[in-house]
Amino acid sequence: MSLSLYNDLTHQKEIFTPLEERKVRFYVCGPTVYDYIHVGNARPFILFDILRRHMEDMGYEVVYVQNFTDIDDKMINKARNLGISVDELAERFITAYFEDADALGIQRATAHPRATHYIPQIIKLVERLIERGHAYVIDGDVYFDVLSFPGYGRLSKQSLEELLSGARVEIDPKKKHPLDFALWKAQKLGEPAWNSPWGMGRPGWHIECSAMAINILGETIDIHAGGSDLLFPHHENEIAQAEAATGKTFVRYWIHNGYLLIEEEKMSKSLGNIVSVREAMKLYSPIAVRLFMLSAHYRSPLNFSGEALNHAVGAAERLQNGWKELSFALRHRPRKKERDDALRETIEATEARYEEELNDDFNTAGALGAAFECVRAVNTYLAQHEEVDEESLMEAERFLARVDRVMGIIGIERLNDIDDLMTSEIERLVSEREKARKEKDFKKADAIREELAKKGIILEDTPHGTRWSKAM
Ligand SMILES: [Zn+2]
After folding, report:
1. Residues 248 and 206 placed together within one structural domain of the fold
2. Which of 82, 152, 179, 347 has a 20 to 30 A CA-CA distance from 8?
């Protein structure tokens, strides 16, 4: 079964075939590190990390790059307000990004390049564009000449006139065309700057991503992803710069996720409705946040609301409890000799559906549905059977562990740690009680039995010692 993805360049679902067999070159636009990331920023980071893990699960080697934009107007203004250097500001919020991403279960990328660490490569790319007649220098600024690149507007599916009427473009008498954009900006007083053939200055935002992507992943990459707000002008400009410089296709599949709304409104500083990941995680577990993010198709808008998050909290509990019951049953329930075909078939069918859904333009909501169906089938089975079909339950365990490895929505590792801790505590109390019984301290033995009963642990004294089990 092959993966199909909706390509914003062609406006259709396409079968994904990487440039090089079994290897995927994947670039995601990362955060501008001037503040804590908010839940809207987190949506693409969570989603595309999961797409990458799904590809790895399918056997691809994925080289996954997510950058940090560590120099731009927002960085400069914020550093000025805080009275620190732009570099200190970047360090502070890169650390904060990793704290938030780790807490949310977002895996580290193969590389997390910082724009300011790629200044020589950026300068080289700008020089190439000037040499090829796609960029011009005025007073220490360098602009990309959109009229020199016939494909401009291809990603947005709009002509220059349409783009111009739709965009808020400041009239700048220095530019040849209003849509021309800065590749290099001459230094203004008090701003950080680097030496270049055009004098002291700093790179424009768009060229940074192209330079990092080309230098780390190559001139043609498989997937470039980001929020849909980046489609124009950021990604349109990235195509123009990269393809004008190399003469090659820059990106084979362009993928964009939909907006995250807050209580049906777009998040914005002016509305004051921005929710940082940190704030969200004071109220909701990382797994609940992830389940919420996966509950809609990635290209659709998603509404962040208390109701939706509470729903996700309930869903997380159902999944985790389902997992706990399953692993407890596998360890403690008596085994059945013959196989339960109906259970086995349901588990196989849900796993097949899980794969189909993720392979159909990364339908995470559908894949989640399949995981829940498996948990429900196992729950029903365990409620109806005292003796269990070990092999089928192990299949379910393997499938759910796979779901967790790709989507990170059960937290098995942590649950097992807690479970191990509980088991050793129970076993300690059981042996303490046996000792008390031998010493005829029945009061103490009964007290321990009661204490365990409160935790839902049932004791059974047999001639071979005490057996314990969890009340179902
Ligand atoms: Zn970018």
Report:
1. yes
2. 179
Owning domain of residue 143: 4-283
Q: What is the distance between the alpha carbons of residues 149 and 135, in angstroms, rounded to a whole number? A: 10
Q: Does 300 reside within a domain?
A: no
pLDDT in tens, 337-366: 888 999 999 999 999 999 999 999 999 999
Same domain, 220 and 331: no
* Cα–ligand 1 centroid distance for 234 (angstroms): 7
How many Å lie between the centroid of ligand 1 and the Cα of residue 210?
A: 7
Query: Which residue among 283, 301, 325 closes a domain?
Result: 283
453 Cα–ligand 1 center, Å: 57
Pick from 60-69, 163-172, 386-395: least confident: 163-172
**Averaged over 150-170, what is the pLDDT?**
86
Say if residue 187 is in the same domain as residue 334: no
226: CA distance to ligand 1 center in Å?
A: 8
> How many structural domains comprise the chain?
3
CATH at residue 392: 1.20.120
Whether residue 185 contacts residue 173, with contact meaning beta carbons closer than 8 Å, is answered with: no
Across 395-424, average pLDDT? 90
pLDDT in tens, 372-399: 999 999 999 999 998 999 999 999 999 9
d(CA 15, ligand 1 centre) in Å: 24
Can you tell me the mean pLDDT for 78-91?
97
User: Other CB atoms closer than 10 Å to residue 386's CB: what's the count?
Assistant: 11
Q: What is the average pLDDT value for the chain, to the nearest integer?
A: 94
Q: Is 283 helix (H, G, I), strand (E, B) or coil?
A: helix
State which residues have CB under 5 angstroms from ligand 1, the bound ion. 29, 209
**What is the DSSP pairing of strand 221-227 with strand 181-186?**
unpaired
Q: How far away, in angstroms, is 405 Cα from ligand 1 center?
A: 28
Question: Separation of 380 CA from ligand 1 center, angstroms?
Answer: 48
